[in-house]
């Protein structure tokens, strides 16, 4: 795999606009040499990673407008550490890479490294754009909260939009409407939470109207209390076990317990699982095990589901700060329209290009 990349400047006076980036070949060192000038102890014909702190001059052609055959141009973003490879796929309704290729791209040792690959595609049914995602395991989720914030920032750079912007996105979870704020953060109307047990989906029997709220589930011999919510994708939220409802999330062995929830027979589509600690009615802390991605630093739909579950269980009000390992999100479940709103950052990490044919057993679609 041949790769090149450039670090994004965080300085406001040297902000990189994606449509004005030079081809990464401007930064190529000699083979076997890293961009910083140090010799590469293990030069590889399959991987060259070039990172430049200096932003390239703003000259045509645009980095992302280059259309070399079998070369994928991408930009890596993160939302509170939940990181994604963003691909400009606006000229086609078919993803430029396959799920198998996405797995290789997301590999943190032999690929770019990410929690998923996101494609910006043409809108359908009157929407401005379509967003599709392949997880790091190759599965395709309905939607991703942190991913949609990154998607919004990506679109604003591609279209060279300035200031406060709002547009519509078609996703597997339905219509999503992000709004870029003046401070660069993104507020997303995540729509109404789905609480009917059959629609989450979960096989746990409903115990409050048609919903599963503070219900028992046996996981590896331990009874946990859970509330099930869908934000277009399934979530199982727990504040603790039957014997201890004061969960200390930092003490969890997440890699052990997370997969057992994800693949539990009570969740026919598997599930995302959020483990939550309550500091106050407006301040929560969570750790998440994501379906198809494992432990991540943040999960936007998960934070939304956590606030909905906390309200349903009488633990919190409708407006909360939710602390995740990657940082805080502001979540509001508005009574007037029953919609959940999420506000948080999305940042460029670097841009790059990949010769996908060099991926073992892979070729461009």
Low-confidence stretches: 6-61
Tell me the structural class: mainly beta
Helix fraction, binned, reads 10-25%
Tell me, what's the shape?
globular
Determine the CATH superfamily of the largest domain.
Diaminopimelate Epimerase, Chain A, domain 1
For the record, the count of structural domains works out to 2
What is the succession of H and E elements? EEEHEEHEEEEEEEHEEEHEEEE
Mean pLDDT: 84
Rounded radius of gyration (Å) = 21 Å
Number of distinct beta strands: 19
Largest sheet: 19 strands, mixed
By CATH, the architecture of the largest domain is named Roll
CATH class of the largest domain, anyone? Alpha Beta
Strand content: 25-35%
The CATH topology of the largest domain comes to Diaminopimelate Epimerase, Chain A, domain 1
- Gap from first CA to last CA: 16 Å
Q: Counting H and I runs of at least 4 residues, what is the number of helices? A: 4
Summarize, please.
This protein is mainly β. 12% of the residues lie in helices and 33% in strands.
Topology of helices and strands:
Elements: E1 3-7, E2 71-79, E3 82-88, H1 99-106, E4 116-122, E5 129-135, H2 145-158, E6 165-166, E7 169-171, E8 174-180, E9 186-189, E10 215-219, E11 222-230, E12 234-241, H3 254-262, E13 272-280, E14 283-290, E15 294-295, H4 300-312, E16 319-324, E17 327-333, E18 340-344, E19 347-355
Parallel strand pairs: 3-4, 5-7, 12-13, 14-16
Antiparallel strand pairs: 1-19, 2-3, 2-19, 4-5, 6-8, 7-8, 8-9, 9-18, 10-11, 11-12, 13-14, 14-15, 16-17, 17-18
Textual characterization of the structure:
It is a single chain. Mean pLDDT is 84; it is low at 6-61. This protein has a 19-stranded mixed β-sheet that branches. The longest helix is centred in the middle third of the chain and has 14 residues, at 145-158. It is 12% helix and 33% strand. The chain is mainly beta and 365 residues long.
